[in-house]
Every structure is written in C-alpha cells, then in structure tokens.
Amino acid sequence: MSKTQTLPDFDWDKADNRGFGSGYSAEERNRLAELYDNTLAQVNEKEVVIGTVVGITDREIILNIGFKSDGLVPASEFRDLPDLKIGDEVEVYVENQEDPNGQLVLSRKKAKVITAWQKIQRALDEDLVIEGFVKRRTKGGLIVDIYSIEAFLPGSQIDVKPIRDFDVFVGKKMEVKVVKINYANDNVVVSHKVLIEKDLEAQRQQILNNLQKGQVLEGVIKNMTNFGVFIDLGGVDGLLHITDISWGRISHPSELLHLDQKVNVVVLDFDEDKKRISLGMKQLQAHPWDSLEETIQVGSKVKGRIVNVADYGAFLEIMPGVEGLIHVSEMSWSQHLRNPQDFLKVGDEVEAVVLTLDRNDRKMSLGIKQLTADPWSRTELVEKYAVGTKHKGVVRNLTNFGLFLELEEGIDGLVHVSDLSWTKKIKHPSDFIKVGEELEVVVLELDVENRRLALGHKQLEENPWDTFEDVFVPGSVHRSTILSKNDKLATLELPYGIEGFAALKSLQKEDGSWADVGETLEFKVLEFSKDEKRIMLSHTKTWQEKGEDRKPEKRQAAAKTPTASKEPERATLGDLDALAALKEQMEGRSAKGE
C-alpha cells in the first residue's frame, strides 16, 4: 500500500489553470516588466551600433546588440575578418528593428560604408593624414582605397615634381589627405603632394634666405621646355634658360641635358618676392672668346658651321660660343642684294675671310665673296665689255627708271626704260619683261672705276624713226586705229606698230559724229618729230580738205598754179624696200613676244 507524500506550506487553493503568470497582480506585473526593459539597450533604426558575436554558422553570424532579440548577418559580409570568433565586437547598421517575422535586421556592409564616409568627412574637417592603398592607375592619376572607399589621386597631386610613371605606386600604401568630397557623385579627391609641400616649405625658406648671386648649387632637372629647363634645388625651383646652357647655340635643351640629371648651376639672379631664380650653366666655364687663337686676325681664313640665317645675313660658328656675321652684301660680288637663304642654310660647312675683329666686344664680321677675285678688277673686263659689244643677262631687279641685268656673277648693268624699245612708250619695265627672264643687250657705256655699266636693248636694231621720217611725211594719209583717249588727246596705232596722237577736236567725222575708241579711220599727218618720236595726225583734215578742193574757186586756183598738190599721196610698204625689210624685222620681234 503506497503512501501519499504531501508538500507542507503549499496553498493548493491558489493554484488554478488560468495560465503562466496569471497569479501576479497588476502592480507586480508592471514592476517585473520595468525590471526587464531596463536590461535592454535603446536601439534606433538607421544607425550604426556595436554588436557582439554570439553565434557563428556557415551562412550567418548571430549578433547581440543589447536588443530584445539577436540579429542575423550573412557570413559573406565578414570575408575581410577570417579570424572572427564568438565574443568579437563589430559595427553593424540597424536596418529594421523587427521584420514581418519578428526578426532584427542588421547589415555590416552598410555600417562599413557609413562609418567610412564619417571618417573621410572627419579627415577633411580636421585636416588629418590617413593611410590609403593604391589599387590601380587610371586616366590622369591613381585610385586609392581609403576605408574601403575608392578615392581619386590626380597625377599633379602625387608629388611636387612631375611623375612620368604612375605604375610604380600601384600596390603600395601611401599617406594622403582628403582635399574634396562630392557626395552627389560619391567622389573623393585626395592629395599626397600637400604632405611633401609642408615638409619642403621650411627647407625652401632656408634656401631662399641663404641664396646669393654667384652661388653654385647642385640640382636635378625636373622639367624640360623649348626655352629652357626647370631645376629642383631641394624644395625650390630655378629656371636655366636655353641661352645659359652652353656658350654655343643649341635649338633644344635635350641636345645637352636630360630629365632627372644632376647638374651644377650658378645663381644669376633671383626675385625674393616672386621666388624666381635664374640659373646659368655656361657661366661655370671660361668664355670661348678668351681662348680664341691669336693667329686669327683680319684677313685670316676660318672655317665653321652656319648656325643661323636671318634676313640680313648668316652667323658662322667657328667654335662653340664664337660666331661671326656674314652680311648678305659679303656673300656675293653682285651689287644687288638677295635673300641670304639663296646662298646658305643652317648646317652648311663653309669657309670665310675675317673682315673685322673686336676681341673686347667679342664681335667678328666675315665675308665669303673675298675668297674669289673682284670681277671688276679683272684686266680683261675693259675688252670684254667694251662699248658696242653684245651680251645676254638675267633680269635681277625692276625699278621705275629701268632694270638691272646680271651679265655674270658680280657684273650688273642698268638698262634705262627709254632704251628698251624704239617704237613703244614703256611706262614701267614690268610692261616689257619680268624678273628672272633673259635679255639681250649692247654695252652703251662702261665706267670701271665707279663700277657702272650702261646697257641698251633697242640699240640691237637700227633706229626705225630714220625710215619713218620718209613714210609719215606731213600731209600723207594712213589708216589708223584709235587705242585710247584722255582729256586732250587720242592715242592711235599707226602702221608698223608705232603710236601717233590726235587732238580730240580732230576726231569729227564728215557726217558730224565723233570717232570713238576702236574705230579704224584715215588720218592725215600734221607733224612729225624724229627727236621727240612724236607724230600728230587728224581725221577731220582728211574730209575737210577734200570738200575745199570741190569748191570752184579752189579748182580755178589749182589750175592756174602748177605746183598745187593733188590729193595727198598714200604711202605703201611696197614703195620702199627699206621699209619692207623693217616690217619683216618688227613682225619677227612681235612673234617672239618682245
């Protein structure tokens, strides 16, 4: 027979089936709830909090943030923490206190981004130096990882000196400062140069304080341009101009120098306010003029290289730093000046004669034509260019009064505009011939002492005006064409290609109208002047005198006077053998385009 054991002091009457906790009074229940709430931390959504790892599975990390429930975070967000263990603390972002399943939603990835931007903003506000990792190069600079945010480091902000190879920084750590944040584009710009500049400022100021003209310094070439090179003197830059690199001429600094080369330079000048320093390199060497051989005197022959060609002449470099000017007038015995580039070009190796030499002022003038004899000093010149001899030459220059003809190198002659043609009135030589064309001439005058030679072209033929005097006799009638008119006279084209003139009042026709340019009519010669080469004619006279001859009194007078002339005789080319030959000669010249 079993015995029933009873529990002393247990009030079975108070026990019922109304559920767990139903035995608490309202006051007791409130007190217990208050005690429980005090054990929980205050958690707000959309903020970063500290969580403690309380569990680790293959797929999730369980975190306790002091809330009424734990949160789950995908294990993939902790790949950067391979040694994560229970009890470690990490920052997480509270996305939702309670999702539809009643679960606390956390994110470490968002926490890292928010925290990173907060650190970046703090670094900008407080001008902090932070450490980044150079991930890769990009156009114009580098991409640097700071707090898992990709920042841009411009090439100009890497160093105080130009960087030519960005790849050397990839994969390395680098200290930088944040200089700009653009939240709209999630863009961060950093600089490493500002760190170097701060270190160099004190060094730069020390250099400037101790800088003196004539001081010799060592520097490194950091940049090269067409006009010179910039040299880093240890925190401060100086300019070495191209003209101060060498005593000789160079066209570009790269002919003698290269980037990153260490060089010794001397301080030529500096502006403390603008911090500009002018440097020299050639000044560290003696001037080449000081070592010029004493054997070089006026009249000496020297050899060198043409280093520059200007409008007025060329410069011959005898040795680096020693140059002489060959004026264009000393390049040829020709009396007319030409372009120096017709004779010389840069790089030519030539010989010259020293004309003047000033060692104190370091100046020298040279000549090339002196290497050959003066053509005007030749003994056979008088015989070769005697008056009446015929020659051919090239037209070198045209002027209002004539043209200069080069018969040979150094021998020029003048053909006056009046000596170009017997029949045509030439206002300017360009109406007759062009520069560079050949012209046949005859010597009219030779003056060796004054180097003058007068030439003529029309003198190659006989003066046709001697023949014209017998053709265009006053009273003779010739068919002529009106070429042009001015206020007083009309210019006519007469037979054989010569010109005549008629007063405007003498152009009236028999019907009362007036002859115009282009018309061909009969004209009577009124006046012929061989010396002035002038023929005056009239058309009106041709019909007026015919009318007068028809009057009765005129006919009677003509019958009584045996010497009275009939209608003026018209001259024809067949009447004169000499004129026929002249016509053939002139037509031959016209066919040649003269």
UniProtKB/TrEMBL annotation:
Task: Please list the residue ranges annotated as the S1 motif domain.
Answer: 46-109, 127-193, 214-282, 299-369, 388-458, 475-540
Composition bias of kind Basic and acidic residues appears in: 542-556
Q: Does the keyword Ribosomal protein apply?
A: yes
User: Its domain of life?
Assistant: Bacteria
Q: Which UniProt keywords apply?
A: Ribonucleoprotein, Ribosomal protein
Output the Gene Ontology cellular-component terms: ribosome
Descriptive protein name: 30S ribosomal protein S1
Species: Larkinella bovis
Classification from the root reads: Bacteria, Pseudomonadati, Bacteroidota, Cytophagia, Cytophagales
